[in-house]
């Protein structure tokens, strides 16, 4: 994380995610405007806002930006991109029925969080 990104992260909520090369390039060039992640019981705290009432509408945790890393190398390409909005989406099959899965005897809806992206704020380690 370079100094500009560190400074931004001091005053904003930033979520760091790994991303494929193709999606990284598409976002950097402005062609991909949504980045999504599947939600599982093991990662729900990262993507879902805490709910006080079990019957409340599920809302995504809010972030100001995504810090996207393409690869695991120390010098992997990285990008800070603004999040304009986020939404919680329940996945459905071709007939419009909610898709569910079971984990440890509990049934869950297959769901995703969709981050609607704005401006690319910074890039690092990009070979030109």
Structural description of this entry:
- There is one protein chain.
- This protein is 16% helix and 40% strand.
- With 128 residues, it is an alpha+beta fold.
- It has one domain (3-124).
- The strands form 2 sheets. A 5-stranded mixed sheet has the order 1-3-4-7-2, with helices on both faces.
- Strand 5 and strand 6 form a beta hairpin.
- The longest helix is centred in the first third of the chain and has 9 residues, at 3-11.
- The protein is globular, with a radius of gyration of 16 Å.
Radius of gyration: 16 Å
| Overall strand count | 7
Shape: globular
Overall mean confidence score, pLDDT: 92
The N- to C-terminal Cα distance equals 19 Å
Number of domains: 1
Could you give the order of the helices and strands?
A: HEHEHEEEEE
**Beta fraction of the residues?**
35-45%
Helix fraction bin = 10-25%
Which sheet architecture does the biggest sheet show?
Answer: 5 strands, mixed
Strands across the major sheet, in which order? 1-3-4-7-2
Number of helices: 3
Structural class: alpha+beta
pLDDT < 50 runs, ≥5 residues = none
Oligomerization status of the protein chains:
single chain
How is this fold's topology laid out?
Layout (H helix, E strand, L loop, with lengths): L2 H9 L2 E5 L2 H8 L5 E6 L4 H4 L17 E5 L8 E13 L9 E4 L2 E4 L1 E14 L4
Parallel strand pairs: 1-3
Antiparallel strand pairs: 2-7, 3-4, 4-7, 5-6
Looking at this protein, list some descriptive labels:
single chain, two-stranded antiparallel ribbon, 5-stranded mixed beta sheet, 128 residues, alpha+beta, globular
């Amino acid at each position: 994380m370079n100094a500009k990104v560190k400074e931004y992260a001091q005053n904003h909520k930033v979520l760091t995610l790994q991303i494929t090369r193709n999606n990284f390039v598409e976002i950097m060039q402005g062609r991909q405007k949504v980045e999504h992640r599947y939600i599982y019981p093991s990662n729900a705290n990262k993507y879902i806002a805490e709910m006080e009432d079990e019957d409340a509408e599920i809302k995504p945790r809010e972030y100001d930006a995504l810090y996207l890393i393409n690869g695991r190398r120390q010098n992997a390409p990285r990008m800070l991109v603004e999040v304009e909005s986020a939404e919680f989406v329940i996945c459905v099959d071709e007939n419009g029925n909610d898709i569910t899965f079971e984990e440890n005897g509990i049934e869950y809806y297959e769901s995703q969080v969709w981050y609607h992206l704005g401006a690319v704020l910074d890039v690092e380690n990009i070979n030109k």
